[in-house]
Amino acid sequence: MNASPDQNGALLQARNVTRRFGELVAVNDVSFDVLKGEIFGIAGPNGSGKSTLFNILTGIPFGPSAGRIIFMGEEIQRLPAYRISQAGLVRTFQKDAEFPTMTARENVVCGAVYCGGLRRDAAQAAADDALDAVGFDKRRQSLPAMDLSVYERKQLMIASAVAGSPAMLLLDEPAAGLTKPEIKELGDLVLSIRDRGVTIVLIEHVLTLLLKVSERLMVLNQGAVLAHGDPHEVVRDQRVVEAYLGKRELVL
């Protein structure tokens, strides 16, 4: 696959992307670009279509009903999920997605194999590098569900994605369940991954985190784009305030 953005700097382009489930339109004619090297934030009330958008971008577990997805100059909406991952577009999930009977390090090795298409020795080296990159410097032989904290399991899931050497990483609500100090640490981690050359798309309800790391912000509501632009301006858009809080003032 061509490993370069388009001439306007867009690494990912979504064009009129729609996902239907019978009569329900979960994502409705959504178009946007993500530029190479940026952190692009996505917000919206519960049920606004955020995670469904990630699903159709990555093919996990389904693609779009209509529309085009262009990644590094090539259309990917008809590719199987493993091909999309190995092309460099990798995601995490809201819920823990590790293999509970495998150690932390073994889980990340699996990410290197699936997402990066690496063989054994290269996958092990990539896993160690990814664990270092996310600051996971202990308990690599631990079983995730039994021995790791919520934040450590978040680190593990991000490391499993980073191990595949993605060009773009899609993070789905990584701050869920974290304390304020952990959210701050997570923000620093997201910035450090961006500094390694990974473009990031971040779904998040924690607006302080989005404002800290995002260079642009898109808000979805009822499956459609409600607002898009500078994060500090977007969160003060009256349409966004009403979508989240009705007629009340949004307090940051």
TrEMBL record:
InterPro entries for the chain: AAA+_ATPase, ABC_AA/LPS_Transport, ABC_transporter-like_ATP-bd, BCA_ABC_TP_C, P-loop_NTPase
Q: Which UniProt keywords apply?
A: ATP-binding, Nucleotide-binding, Transport
> Could you give a GO molecular-function term held by this entry?
ATP binding
Keyword presence, Nucleotide-binding: yes
- Report the transmembrane regions from the record: none
Tell whether ATP-binding is among the UniProt keywords: yes
Cite the Pfam families for this sequence: ABC_tran, BCA_ABC_TP_C
Q: Which segments constitute the ABC transporter domain?
A: 12-247
Give the domain of life. Bacteria
Cross-referenced PANTHER family? AMINO ACID ABC TRANSPORTER ATP-BINDING PROTEIN, CONSERVED COMPONENT OF ABC TRANSPORTER FOR NATURAL AMINO ACIDS-RELATED
Record-given protein name: ABC transporter ATP-binding protein
| Natural source organism | Aminobacter carboxidus
